[in-house]
Amino acid sequence: xxxxQINKLFISFGGIRALAGVDxxxxxxxxxxVIGPNGSGKTTLFNCISGVYRPTGGEIFFxxxxxxxLSPDTIAAKGIARTFQNLxxxxxxxxxxxxxxxRHVKFRKNPLQAVLRIRTEEVKHREFVEEIIxxxxxQAYRQARVSDCPYGVQKRVELGxxxxxxxxxxxxxxPIAGLTSEEKDETAYRITEIRGRxxxxxxxxxxxxxxxxxxxxxxxxFESGLEIxxxxxxxxxxxxxxxxxxxxxxSEQKRN
Amino acid sequence: MDLIESYREELQxxxxxxxxxxxxxxxxxxxxxxxxxxxxxxxxxxxxxxxxVGVQGQNILIGYTGQISFGQAGFLAIGAYxxxxxxxxxxxxxxxxxxxxxxxGLFGLIVGFPSLRLKGPxxxxxxMGFGIAVYQIFANSELLSGGRMGLAIPKISPIFGIxxxxxxxxxxxAIALLFTLASYNIISSYMGRAFIAIRDNDIAAExxxxxxxxxxxxxxxxxxxxxxxxGGLYSLLIGHLEPNMFTFMETITLFVAxxxxxxxxxEGSIMGAAFVILVPQLLSSYRELVxxxxxxxxxxxxxxxxxxxxxxxxKTRLYLRNWPFR
Lengths: 256, 326
Description:
The complex is a heterodimer.
Chain A: E1 4-13, E2 16-26, E3 31-35, H1 42-49, E4 57-62, E5 65-66, H2 72-77, E6 80-82, H3 95-102, H4 111-115, H5 120-135, H6 151-163, E7 169-173, H7 181-198, E8 201-205, H8 209-215, E9 218-223, E10 226-231, H9 233-238, H10 240-247, H11 252-255
Parallel strand pairs in A: 3-8, 3-9, 6-7, 7-8
Antiparallel strand pairs in A: 1-2, 1-4, 4-5, 9-10
Helix pairs in contact in A: 3-6
Chain B: H1 7-10, H2 17-31, H3 33-36, H4 39-64, H5 72-88, H6 93-112, H7 120-140, H8 142-145, E1 151-152, H9 164-187, H10 190-200, H11 202-207, H12 212-238, E2 240-241, H13 248-261, H14 266-282, H15 290-304, H16 308-322
Antiparallel strand pairs in B: 1-2
Helix pairs in contact in B: 4-9, 4-10, 4-12, 4-13, 4-14, 5-6, 5-7, 5-12, 6-12, 10-12, 13-14, 13-15, 14-16
GO molecular function, one term (chain B): branched-chain amino acid transmembrane transporter activity
Subcellular location (chain B): Cell membrane
Membrane topology (chain B): Multi-pass membrane protein
């Protein structure tokens, strides 16, 4: 049984069919990369899996259990964490609080302890958060307001916030977009490291094909809300459908 | 040098010795207030303490959770009348006060429901409707409001042989202090973090696992609990209730206190409460000018110091800490 199974997922906004019956699955422990041109439905897919959008039709099974139509916080509690393409951080809080919020579902919540300032839970979870801070090299920014941090750091904070949930499945929406080439390599390295260290299955959207194929065990290509190719990175990149989607068809003139 | 040795140490309410010293000084100055201040001033300080409770509650809702509400007068009225009726049937004041808070809190839950769908100005209008409706109900129901004569509230007699004014001050000061501590504790807990997360980015909050329904309603309930307690304390101090005390102007007063004091700041809430009480006192011979002053101050604050009095205070502290460097 695969970790995530998506059957005939369908969603439309007005007249636009953002997902037109997507079929694919994610195996336990793998890194699966989703590629595709702009507007092909990659982010919409993420929004459906994490519960931000409610699909019009189809099925999503996580560990054999349907998660279709559940609210985002219920899905998070089941162990699916995600990052966003355009950062969605809590800008007025410091890095530490952002990471602790990532751990929100793990807290034992007792309002009385909150009012009386009994902070046993806080201390317990702080230890794990510190582990993430070390892993992502955020020590210097621990108490910095997120809005004051440079973009590369904000990107890491968002990754850290998702990791703090100790997710079974991690959805990364363009984790290296907008980074410098050094930061890109560093993040790519970290993504492979995450799998080993946190035992996480990773589904990621990426435009940089060089890094995408380096990271991926398997690749899925999307076009206009449909998956057009699946397989190893090499297979997908050689697929004529994928080449057509990215580069377009050879012109009539040239062919003659 | 500021070294922290354990996570627990970092989670203390007041960590630095210097902060401890000046907070201690301020609190002791307030405790000794009746001994050096004229009676009139002690009375005003009492009202500020009462308002500080409600403004803190509203700041949890407006400043921390980012839900604009204009229903404060409604919760205030519900708290005040619940307290009044409970104490008139002979229930002891601590229970009556708790009852006032809980009743207002329950109404807060109900009023919070639109917040699950409505945002910003739309929510403001919906809550405003609630505030005005409550006023109308009390104004038109003699059974609830005690008729034309109003509702008389029996006062509690001073203990330890101190004067009435001193007793009222200590009573309300102690309660305000308790609520202030609770505010600090709530906002630094998982709950406060969830509130701020909803304000900063509700979609991200949901995705990390914050249940929007639960925490928005919780914020409404907590803030109305505070405001309900304010109503109870106020009715006990005044000893008399009539619906005209809970018009829309009262909502504006609390809202102004939150904005001028500074959004998302407990200290700011107290400063804001002091502001809205002191200004009408200082201008007692020009009462009609008070709304004008409030309006102009809000404009000035929003343009020059969006973080309110607490923001100014933070900047002053930073300046003093770095002095003589800048």
